[in-house]
Specification:
The protein has 118 residues and is α/β, with parallel strands linked by helices. Helices cover 29% and strands 21% of the residues. Strands 2-1-3-4-5 form a 5-stranded parallel beta sheet, covered by helices on one side.
Length: 118
């Protein structure tokens, strides 16, 4: 399997640094781009895997970012809040990680990504 192009979106600088370290530990995620302000930075047309750290449920997420996430082939979402609090966003992640995120849960989410590719 070729190394996937991965975009890690962390607007609040919460768990993004930890997830970036985890991605380096995995060994096969070589092309990880960290994006802290996706509305200021042009989002790529497509990446293989997007990992997005969601803000608190009461905080707005820009519509352009939500639309972009809805059209990505594989998305892993993270938050300090449970998944059901984000159902109104109509995102379909392959995995949802609740913070604090243990390395083995990150690995399990990546395994779901690998399984979705086969």
């Amino acid at each position: 399997m070729l190394a996937p192009r991965v975009l890690l979106i962390d607007q609040a600088f919460t768990s993004g640094k930890l997830l970036y370290k985890y991605s380096r530990r995995v060994g096969w995620l070589n092309s990880v781009q960290l994006c802290s302000h996706p509305t200021e930075t042009a989002l790529p047309d497509s990446v293989d895997l997007t990992i997005a750290c969601l803000p608190e449920p009461c905080e707005p997420i820009p519509d352009d970012l939500l639309n972009w996430l809805r059209h990505q082939p594989a998305v892993i979402l993270t938050s300090a809040f449970p998944e059901h609090m984000y159902e109104h966003l109509h995102l379909r992640p392959i995995a949802f990680l609740t913070e604090p995120i243990a390395f083995n849960k990150f690995q399990n989410a990546l395994q779901k990504y690998i399984n979705s590719k086969s």
